[in-house]
Poly [ADP-ribose] polymerase (Helicotheca tamesis), 723 residues
Amino acid sequence: GRGGFASVFLAEKRTSGRRVAIKVMVADDSGDEGYWEKIIKRELESVSKLNRKMKNNEERDMNTIFFREYYMLSSIRRAAYIVMNYIDGGTLSNEIKTRASKAPLVPYSERRIAWYMLQIAEALAYAHERGVAHHDVKSANILIDRSGGGKLVLTDFGASVAPGEDSVGFTPSHASPELMLASTTGDCSALDPVKVDSFGLGCILVELLSCQLLTHFTSGCSNAFTTLAQVALAGGVDAVLSLSCLRVPWVPAQNGPFSTGSSSVEGYSFSLRNLAAALLDPDASTRSPPSDFPAPLRNEVESPLVANYLAAVETAIPGTPVTMDNIQLGTLVQRGPDWQDGVVDGGPGSIGVVVGLDADALYTKVVWPTNPSETFCYRIGAGQKYELNVGPCCLGDTFGGMDNSRKQVGVLVSRDPSKYSVGMKLTENSVVVALRHAEGIILVAPTIKISPPTTALSATAIQPPAVTFLPPRDPEPHPAWWQLNHGLFCEVTDTKEWKQVLDLFHAPSGGMSSERFAVVSLKRIQSVPLWYSYANSCERIAGENWGMVNECRLFHGTRSIPPEQIAQDPVGFDPRFCEKGMFGRGSYFAALSSYSDKFHHSVNYQGSACRQMFLARVALGRVHDSVADTGIRRPPRNHHSIAGRACLPSGIESSVFVIYETVTQALPEYLITYREKMQHEIVEAPPQNHRAAPNCSGNYAAPVPIVFSVDSNHNLKNKRARR
């Protein structure tokens, strides 16, 4: 990379193969005489002070850059070469820029922000103790050590100053108000370099909160301020903390799921806000130095690093690694990809509970139900090792229906925790593993062993957002692109939306042949009441199925029932529209349009005989496989749907899914009107080798094909059933 004074190259030692970074500083003849030598000398002297051991033989701070060797050439060639440790993760500014470029934008979790701030604050405090002030603190001067689990390293001390020295350079976007003033007057005598570094640290905090580099900063104020220093001087620190660029709002301290009045508001805590306020104070005399923050960040109970609950946390998805971004007190966990602890957990499938959070953020403490008296420490990112996976979100009956406001965590709340004890069995399926008497918290682990379902879904699956905040959460709102002013049935005109639906309808294996059938109309169904009924069902199913909705797009033929009647009904796929099918009285959906075509609705459209079917969103939840239970007429307890296989006369197999009383599990999303092409329109296509359609549910074994044509009774039943 290239900076203001130097370029950095990756190199490899021939003898050992060890990779290092070489910083090359070449004199710029345009500067004042001796200026270049001062810059090099300043950086070498500053880093040398930081690389030394302390008097008590304590090792140097690992969050500051380490110079292994350096070479200075003659005054004629005027160049210097500094050999440094190679840090493999790039700069923090590049990470922020990359995150900001992705859609949808995912804000930083609060624990990661606090962990980053702790490391930079400790590095600055270490430097200040040795008489070195960085004086150019910004995200571009912070490196990320990916091989070390994402630890930060403070680098580039070319602008550093010792007490009493004048400023030699700084970055205006990260400069404090008093430094900007001193650069204008030319008088640096009143500057406190430590407080200048504090403001730079606060600027990095704003970048993390907003996912926006301050080099691209615009305040949105009428005065068109371009730096945080200007905003702070004009309106105080509150003006900075109220900027519209901050991605997530501030929320008061809350116990979240650990209180009956828990809030579902997403946001960063006031603990983080107070940290920002202390660093961005426009008055240097009252601004806190970096050394004030490491101790409270590590030790105070409300610190984001050790707080029981935070709202700004990534969703813990079963089967994915536990990280600092998705962990909470009480998170249910299982052995992960880097597990090295034998059978202390009780064996594969055992579920433990997070009972303690570590301020270093790369470790956590867990208790297993097989040994509730012992606590184990595990890596959740240290050295790029992940020893734990997020466990399944157990069903309500695991805890016997007790007051567990979030099934994702093994936390119960009691006004009298003294009546509980570690090792006490609460139900047949759960045991107490830890107690927090002062907070009224009981940590509970399931004693049953569960293998989490796979999250792999077929092409028709509706993929959830990559990251959301932890429950309790509100149902997902209806799509923003709906054109509600066009009514309940909105004709689709967008080419991309057309193609997405037609790709499913004309699927190469098992779809309606594009050579023989033409879609003449595609209407989006825009029923806000049906959407919210469906969204509420999705949230309920997620809480009952290990956090997974298992949502797919499936086809549905209504036969004699006009599709408009279903779309306009307040319930949608109401049971009164259903007739008995092979799996009883329910609403049937198919992965392949050619199967639902058997149950199409006939309609006269613009003078032509046409057919209609729905493409629906269906929340399958936990699916019961009918392969060993072909006589089933209702899903078993704690299941949400039934799946089977149907074979068409062409030999193509289609997955078929049935939902029952909970009809809001399905949402009519598109109404497809199509017709058979006239003979002169047909273009014969070569025969295809058809194969079975992919299993849409993704979390159960593929059923044995059910050949409807073998049994005439089954044929009769299925002709009467609504698909």
User: Anything to note?
Assistant: The domain at 332-446 is CATH 2.30.30.40 (SH3 type barrels.). The radius of gyration is 31 Å. The mean pLDDT is 78. The first helix runs from residue 35 to 51.
